[in-house]
Amino acid sequence: MADIFHYFSIQAPVEKVFESVSTPKGLNSWWSQDSNGKPGPGETYLLCFGPKYNWKAIISKYIPGNEFELRFIESDMDWNDSRVGFILADKDVFTDVQFYHTGWKDDNRHFRISNYCWAMYLRILRRNLEYGEEVPYKDRLQA
Predict the structure, then answer these.
(1) Do residues 89 and 65 touch, judged by C-beta distance below 8 A?
(2) What is the pLDDT of residues 87-133, one digit of tens each?
(3) Average pLDDT taken over every residue of the chain
(4) Contacts (Cβ under 8 Å, ≥6 apart) of 61
(5) What is the mean pLDDT of residues 8-33?
(6) Would you call 44 helix, strand, or coil by DSSP?
(7) The domain containing residue 18 runs over which residues?
(8) Residues with Cβ < 8 Å from 6, sequence gap 6 or more?
(9) CB 62 within 8 A of CB 40
(10) FRET pair for 120, CA 20 to 30 Å: which of 21, 30, 91, 127?
(11) What confidence tier does 26 reach under pLDDT thresholds 50, 70, 90?
(12) Tally of structural domains, the chain
């Protein structure tokens, strides 16, 4: 198995960071093209990344202000049953973020591309929260 980890800080309150990583509106601001679902443990999110990329994930961890995790149930073969999550820690004006994407079956080409893509998307998340930058979905991996 292979796993992805990125640890960084965001100069924003933990509540705003949690909202950005755990709600459909928040996810759409930096990651997905369109997502919907109700935030809460055991709920299902529908995540759209383009015409051939309509995925489903179950919220497997949901602790407001602290932890959020999705387990993919209908997605790319490499992502099925993998988990994408955030562990947040309030550090006054900063929020420490521990991001992970675990459960990859192989350290293959798609794993390596996804590792790079996560770094790019997490940078957009950070800049959105710190500076209010908005990057159109089609431009996100070039930002």
Answers:
(1) no
(2) 999 998 999 999 999 999 999 999 999 999 999 999 999 999 999 99
(3) 96
(4) 41, 67, 68, 69, 85
(5) 98
(6) strand
(7) 2-142
(8) 97, 99, 100, 118, 119, 122
(9) yes
(10) 91
(11) very high
(12) 1
CATH code assigned at 20 = 3.30.530.20
DSSP output for 2-37: EEEEEEEEESS-HHHHHHHHHSHHHHHTTT-SEEE-
Specify whether the backbone of 96 is left (phi greater than 0), alpha (psi in -120 to 50) or beta.
beta
Instruction: Indicate the residue type of 74.
Output: E
pLDDT of residue 78: 93
Q: In what order do the strands lie in the sheet with 67-74?
A: 2-10, 94-104, 83-91, 67-74, 54-63, 44-48, 34-36
CB 6 within 8 Å of CB 102? no
Q: DSSP of 62-127, one letter per residue?
A: EETTTEEEEEEEES-TTTTT-EEEEEEEEETTEEEEEEEEEEES---HHHHHHHHHHHHHHHHHHH
